[in-house]
Amino acid sequence: MIPGLLIFTFVIIIPTGFAISYSLYEASSFVGLPTFVGLENYLNLLQDTRFWRDLWQTLVYALGSIFLQIIFGIVIALILNQQFKGRDFVRGVSVVPYIIPVIVVTMGWEWILDTNFGIINKALASLGLGNINFLSMDLAMFTSILLSVWTWTPFVTLVFLSGLQTISHDLYESATLDGANSWQQFWRITIPMMKDLLITIVLLRGLWMFNKFDLVWLLTGGGPLEKTETLPIYIYLNTFKLNEVGYGATVAVTSAFFMMVIMYVYLKITNYSPEKKRLKKRKAAAKMEQVSSQGISIKGDGSL
Q1: What is the residue-averaged pLDDT of the chain?
Q2: 19 vs 30: CA distance, rounded Å
Q3: 214-253 pLDDT tens trace
Q4: Could you give the maximum distance between any two Cα atoms of the chain, in Å?
Q5: In this predicted structure, what is the pLDDT of residue 131?
Q6: CB-based contacts of 267: which residues, under 8 Å, 6+ apart?
Q7: Conformational region of residue 222, where left means phi above 0, alpha means psi within -120 to 50, and beta covers everything else
Q8: Taking a C-beta distance cutoff of 8 angstroms, is the pair 209, 144 a contact?
Q9: Cβ proximity of 52 and 231 under 8 Å
Q10: DSSP string spanning 75-138?
Q11: CA of 22: how far to CAs of 230, 233, 237, 260, in Å?
């Protein structure tokens, strides 16, 4: 327990304390002498229209990415859970986007989507269609979301697929005998059995996508005209480009606060609790044990 507390203290508590402390100062670097300004940075933040716009763009990017990742991840997992020739190979190929470094993914897709020389625009041109600037002001955010979906959907697929393999086939066979079609089995067996796992997947994807910096920065740099500038990029610009370390820390602390509020509301809405989950499992186990003992008792009576 003590090693865990030490790691938690050095990795979580101390950096968080430094960030909160810096947010109360005006500082141009991490080594210079900062000036204490109290809550002035937070008051300025409330009037910072760029912060609120970036918060909205962060939510659009995060929610759009999560929604599509979950949908595509579940569909692919359901397909990979079926029996077909070459399934193991396809399962292996499906995780390739997830293991490629983000810098490679970004450079590759920049080339593919290039307005003049990209493969997609070449294909459109061969069909007699006009070129599309996928990183224009109107499409840059949409392209960033699609690229994040391509990169991180395999994570959802892997986790959901592992959960599918824990569901007993007897349930589906019984449902089939009762006349339930595939759609009904999905909503009445698969989704209820996977509910806790789905809640965890959405929680993790939410945390990661809300704080995602590298892909958007490498793809668009926050542009064009700040159309894809999210809060992590705004924090980076303030802290390392504009030398506003104190204000950058203020944005970071406020961003973390919003993230915690969103996660708290999400867990309340989904009614997710590890303790409730354990209690539910114990009740299910006790019920199965009771049914089993009744079966033995009935058998015993029959033998008499």
Answers
A1: 87
A2: 11
A3: 999 999 998 888 899 999 999 999 999 998 999 999 999 9
A4: 90
A5: 84
A6: 199, 203, 273
A7: left
A8: no
A9: no
A10: HHHHHHTS--TTHHHHHHHHTHHHHS-HHHHHHHHHHHT-TTT-HHHHHHHHTTPPP--TTSTT
A11: 21, 18, 16, 20
